[in-house]
Amino acid sequence: MTARNKIALIGGGQIGGMLALIAAQKQLGDVVILDIPQAEGMVKAKAIDLMALRPHGGYDVDITGTSDYRDIEGASLVLITAGVPRKPGMTRDDLLKINLKIMKDVAGKVKEHAPDAFVILTTNPLDAMVYAFYKYSGLPKQQVAGMAGSLDSGRFRSFIAMKTGCSVEDVSGVVMGGHGPSMVPITRTASVGGVPLSALLGEEEIHEVVEHTRNAGTEIVNLLGNGSAFYSPASSVMDMAEAFLLDKKRVIPSAALCEGEYGVDGYFLGVPCVIGRGGIERILEFELTDEEREELHKTADAVKQLVEEIEI
Ligand code: A3D
Questions:
Q1: Up-side HSE of residue 166: CA atoms within 13 Å toward CB?
Q2: Taking the model in full, what pTM does it have?
């Protein structure tokens, strides 16, 4: 008998709840949703609700809610969304101090109770939080990744599909760099069914797609008024999670520790990564134009500045 995977969700709020639902629907494993003691009732309630959805949802895994870290023992995958989301008028960077405290607490406990797990973080400011988690936990670099490039590239692809009137299924494109306004959508390699984007859209239209991609998160924060995006972030995390659990070797832009790649050293930054059962197995490098390299270094500098505020 093969044991099912155990998936621990640290943070059971908007994204955490969606993660539990998608993981269950895909039957990726049993799910433990952990939150702070004050929110234990909330995650227990979500777990009961999701268990009751099983006869309709076509899945047969166990979902539990807890505030006790002993319940995540044996998890092969830990997905962290613990933290506070933005409110209108806030930048992701404004969350640094408050979410850093949370990350210190979470990192120590994950290290203690699930030291072999692959960990994917979503907490903002993303690239700095992944760096902090890596430093606080001391886990190997292959085991630590941040979800942002997956979402940003998904937005990029979706907006290209909308602008060209073609199916999103046939759009490919990558967004690199930090998860902030200086992220770098690589328009040169984007394509629709193998046709270069530049053959389908004019400069101005491509510029609009790029700006929409960069601002999509803020647009949602302003419209929601209380909280940030959660459907697409959860699905973007789950692409990475599934690539790990099923050893798919998918190429997904993720915040990974760069040690010389793209001229970045010692920081987590969004780069194309091969994800399989070894976690972040490889970073794929390709030649950037001078302009792209300059933009990537600008975004890396923004991440560096934030990381310098962190005392490890
Ligand atoms: P929310 O619905 O508030 O859920 C966060 C949960 O974390 C809450 O249930 C909290 O109780 C819980 N929590 C707080 N402290 C702890 C702790 N110490 N241990 C365990 N749980 C804790 O937020 P959300 O789910 O909408 O967003 C979560 C994070 O993701 C925020 O920081 C967002 O800014 C971020 N986010 C990132 C992206 C990226 O693309 C990187 C996209 C959307 C949101």
A1: 15
A2: 0.97
